[in-house]
Structures are given as C-alpha cells and as structure tokens.
Amino acid sequence: MKVYKCAFTDEELCSDSMPATIEYNGLIMKVPAKFVTAEDADEDDPNPEQVLDVVMYYNLNETTYTKKTYRGHLKSFFAKVCARLEEKGGDLTVDAFKKDSMVFVKEILATFDEWQFYTGAGFDDSGVIVLSKWVGEECFFYYW
Q1: How distant, in Å, are the alpha carbons of 2, 28, 69, 119 from that of 129?
Q2: Alpha carbon distance 102, 104 (integer Å)
Q3: Closest CA to 117 of 64, 39, 56
Q4: CA 15, 59, 63 angle in degrees (round to 5)?
Q5: What is the mean pLDDT of residues 103-126?
Q6: Residue 112 to residue 133: CA distance in whole angstroms
Q7: In this prediction, what percent of the chain has a pLDDT beyond 90?
C-alpha cells in the first residue's frame, strides 16, 4: 500500500487503498468518501455514529477558514510548493503549477461556503489542507 503524506508536515493524509481520480492536469487527487460506523461505536447501539471513511482512516481534523484566511494559507502554501518544485525539478514546472492550480483555486473561492477544510492528525495547518465538498449525496475529498 502506498501512503500519501504531506511533503511539508509528513502527516499521512490518504493511501492508494482509496479509489481516486486525478484532476486539474494532474495536480489534484479526488477521493470519494462513504459513511462507515465509527471505530469507537458501541456494538449494542442500534444507531451507531456514522463518520466519513476518509476522515476516520486518516485521522483528519476539520478546521475552519474564512475566504480571507484561506487565501493567506494558499499564498504561503504556494510559496512552499514553488520553492520545492524549483529545488527538486521534475516534470511539473512552477509556471504549470501556478497556471493549473489557479483553475482549482477559482472554483474553491467561487463556491467557498460549500467546502470543508481538514488538517492531518497533528492539526498542523502549515502544509496541505485537505478539502471536501458534497456534490448531491456524494462527498469528495481533494488533495493537492
């Protein structure tokens, strides 16, 4: 199993055991979530607590942002990503990252109130913030 970690906080955020699609020219991994019974649910409870599998399996913690504070986070996050891209090289260039990610950022900001934000298990918001959004009856998680 391949585990996906934040490059900046080293927190585990997902794995290849979850079905995923790659979107936005390879920048974003989209993972569908489903409800599962919470690990600490009482076996005798006829209505055990239901939680999203992605949140439970990877110990994600919901956090909040205003549009202004999220823009600030993105500015800091993008600076880190661009510095890392310049340092490491590879197929993805800084210009391509900026161009392709702006399409996703515009979608987030245009529908800001529809998104939820998550940190990893350590509540460290200095790296990747995982996003989720409900589309009808389905919830999807989005990873940079």
Answers
A1: 20, 12, 12, 5
A2: 5
A3: 64
A4: 115
A5: 97
A6: 10
A7: 88
pLDDT of 134 strictly over 80: yes
- The pLDDT, as a whole number, for residue 88 is 87
* Assigned token pair, 132: 């989720």
CA angle 41, 117, 1 (to 5 degrees): 65
Does the pTM surpass 0.90? The reply is yes
Q: Tell me the mean pLDDT in the region 63-71.
A: 98
Nearest to 100 by CA among 85, 118, 115: 85
Nearest to 141 by CA among 2, 9, 25, 20: 20
Question: Residue written as tokens 């987030």?
Answer: 108
Which among 60, 75, 78, 74 has a CA at the least distance from the CA of 116? 60
